[in-house]
Amino acid sequence: MKFVIDMMGGDHGVETTIGAVKEFLKLHDDVYFYCVGNVECLSPLEGLDRVTIVPSIEVLKMDVDPMEAMHKKDSSLNIAMETYLKENCDCLVSAGSTGALVSEGVFKIKRMAGIKRPCLVSPFPTVIKGKNFVCADLGANTENTSENLLQFAKITSIFYRIAYNCENPKVYLLNNGTEEEKGNNLMKETYQLLKNDPSINFKGNMEAREPLNGECDVLITDGFTGNIFLKSTEGACKVMSNLIKRSFKTNFMTKIGYLFAKKGFKDMSETMDYKSTGGAMLLGVNGLLIKAHGSSDVRTFVSSLKIGYRLSKNDIINKIKENL
């Protein structure tokens, strides 16, 4: 398999991506990397088997205007896209600007036939160890119609069925209440479309406090709300983790207590570790594009490579097209 990596994207730049590529080369001997970025910065990768360094000059800022990014031909993301197409690669991974990745994907990789708008889909951990749910859209769009959300539900259900070997995934609509009449006009209209579509196993509305409990397989929302849900969930998990650590460091007795509870807290940490779930996939385009967390460390970026590897192995793009 051939992977293209935008080595310069993300908050931590090549420090993260170089470490992740080296780690992944040890894990898998059937992946070839095209690493796009500043040649001098990528010198630690020179001479490695199954690595080609593709030179680029410019680095896109995280807040770059998506349309402006399209015209920066020498950027690492633009050249990564060109390499993806030229070399007929299986996966592209970037921790850079989400807006730039989405616009590049839509205009260069192109949308699947019949898809009006792509969506960003990412797995989330739940309290059930080993059980993930996926949410769409997580920020590919800031405004959506009910028809958009219906399409998100269709393609994300297909994705979940294939990626997680779940025959009939349970679909919920993220809302401010569980009752059918809850929500704004967009949510009310979407509810009726989902309810009346026999191809979707729609189970109703779900409030934001419920998805991590493990009942949901697919959570549907508009891109603006989904991005807030993503970041607030990650933020809450970080705060709770820090509070727990701080409480056990209060005094000698709490440190002793931690020794007795250590195994349980380790299991909880592993179960709810969002860093192990990988990045978001831009679903609805004719290629496998993975958006890694902008703040990815080496471990988180490796997780993004792992999800790209697993989806490539499953030939996810062609299977989604067949099901559509």
Describe the protein in words.
Strand 5 and strand 6 form a beta hairpin. It is built from 10 helices and 11 strands. It is α/β, with parallel strands linked by helices and 324 residues long. The mean pLDDT is 89. The chain has helices at residues 14-27, 66-70, 76-86, 98-109, 146-163, 185-195, 223-248, 252-271, 298-313, 316-323, and strands at residues 2-6, 32-37, 51-55, 91-94, 119-125, 132-136, 171-174, 202-206, 218-220, 280-283, 289-291. Helix 1 packs across helix 9 (298-313). It has an 11-stranded mixed β-sheet with strand order 3-2-1-4-11-10-5-6-9-7-8, with helices on both faces. The two termini are 25 Å apart. The longest helix is centred in the C-terminal third of the chain and has 26 residues, at 223-248.
Rough outline: globular
Query: Over all CA atoms, what is the radius of gyration?
Result: 20 Å
Largest sheet, order of strands side by side?
A: 3-2-1-4-11-10-5-6-9-7-8
Count up the helices.
10
Largest sheet: 11 strands, mixed
How big a fraction of the residues is strand? 15-25%
List key phrases describing it:
alpha/beta, globular
Q: Can you describe this structure in just a few lines?
A:
The chain is α/β, with parallel strands linked by helices. It has helices spanning 14-27, 66-70, 76-86, 98-109, 146-163, 185-195, 223-248, 252-271, 298-313, 316-323; strands at residues 2-6, 32-37, 51-55, 91-94, 119-125, 132-136, 171-174, 202-206, 218-220, 280-283, 289-291.
Which helices and strands appear, and what pairs or packs with what?
Blueprint: E1 2-6, H1 14-27, E2 32-37, E3 51-55, H2 66-70, H3 76-86, E4 91-94, H4 98-109, E5 119-125, E6 132-136, H5 146-163, E7 171-174, H6 185-195, E8 202-206, E9 218-220, H7 223-248, H8 252-271, E10 280-283, E11 289-291, H9 298-313, H10 316-323
Parallel strand pairs: 1-2, 1-4, 2-3, 4-11, 6-9, 7-8, 7-9
Antiparallel strand pairs: 5-6, 5-10, 10-11
Helix pairs in contact: 1-9, 3-4, 5-6, 5-10
